[in-house]
Specification:
Layout (H helix, E strand, L loop, with lengths): L1 H10 L1 E3 L4 H6 L8 E2 L5 E3 L2 E3 L12 E3 L2 E5 H8 L3 E4 L4 E4 L6 E2 L9 E2 L6 E2 L2 E2 L3 E4 L5 E7 L7 E9 L3 E8 L4 E8 L6 E6 L6 E7 L4 E5 L4 E2 L1
Parallel strand pairs: 1-6
Antiparallel strand pairs: 2-5, 3-4, 5-6, 7-8, 9-21, 10-13, 11-12, 13-20, 14-19, 15-18, 15-20, 15-21, 16-17, 16-19
Keywords: Signal
Protein name: Copper amine oxidase-like N-terminal domain-containing protein
Pfam family, one: Cu_amine_oxidN1
Length: 223
């Protein structure tokens, strides 16, 4: 994937096209350029179209014998996450250096900050999804990366029984990104999933009767 991304972004000078924030924060220089819808694109030999975040087809720009492509459209085609930081006036491509906790905006019926429920193996994680309900059941929650990140690193522990078919799924396309069974003997497991181009994630697992699912939110993160 890195080779594909490098080739694409080296072959063309890339224009941000990330929205009004870029324009407002940039040191702009006026130029005369042309939209060039005659240019066609193929990805791995198959015809593709460049589209913006709303799904509308966008054309490249030609200026001074150089073709400029919108970053988001190209990154979506290549499966590379893109994020614009208006404060730093910087576009981030791919996996970020610093993780972003999934705790912000998290909501589930088993979301808790109760100190009696946030401790696992003598460590207090402060903010967790802790499903200690009764009966064999599905335990689930939603995440909203909004296409901004390349990877999800989510931690989960099975307590007093197995979690079967722990699944990370693209909610919009029903694509399974990762699935596995987690046992108490494994301890706190870190599961990595590629979430480039994913807006909404559905996380679920089948918890055995008498067992609990423990997901620390502060140490589970996007990158």
């Amino acid at each position: 994937m890195k080779k594909k991304m490098t080739a694409a972004f080296t072959a063309f000078a890339v224009l941000g096209g990330m929205g009004a924030g870029v324009v407002a924060g940039a040191n702009l220089q006026e130029i005369k350029a042309f939209l060039n819808p005659s240019i066609k694109f193929k990805l791995n030999g198959q015809p593709v179209q460049l589209k913006n975040s709303s799904g509308a087809v966008v054309a490249p720009i030609t200026y001074n014998n150089t073709t400029y492509l919108p970053v988001r459209a190209v990154s979506d085609l290549l499966g590379v996450a893109v994020k614009f930081d208006p404060a730093a006036n910087t576009i981030f491509l791919g996996e970020q250096l610093e993780g972003v906790s999934i705790a912000a905006g998290f909501d589930s019926s088993y979301h808790t900050k109760d100190p009696d429920k946030t401790v696992y193996l003598d460590k207090d994680y402060k903010d967790v999804h802790f499903d200690n309900g009764s009966g064999t059941r599905g335990s689930s929650f939603m995440l909203y990366p909004k296409n901004k990140y390349q990877k999800l690193y989510i931690q989960v522990a099975a307590i007093d029984g197995d979690i079967k078919d722990f699944t990370i799924q693209d909610s919009d396309t029903d694509t399974v990104l990762k699935k596995q069974t987690i046992t108490p003997e494994q301890g706190l497991v870190t599961i990595e999933a590629d979430i480039a181009g994913v807006s909404t994630i559905y996380v679920t697992g089948q918890v055995e009767d008498g067992a609990a699912m423990f997901v620390p939110l502060t140490t589970s993160y996007y990158k």
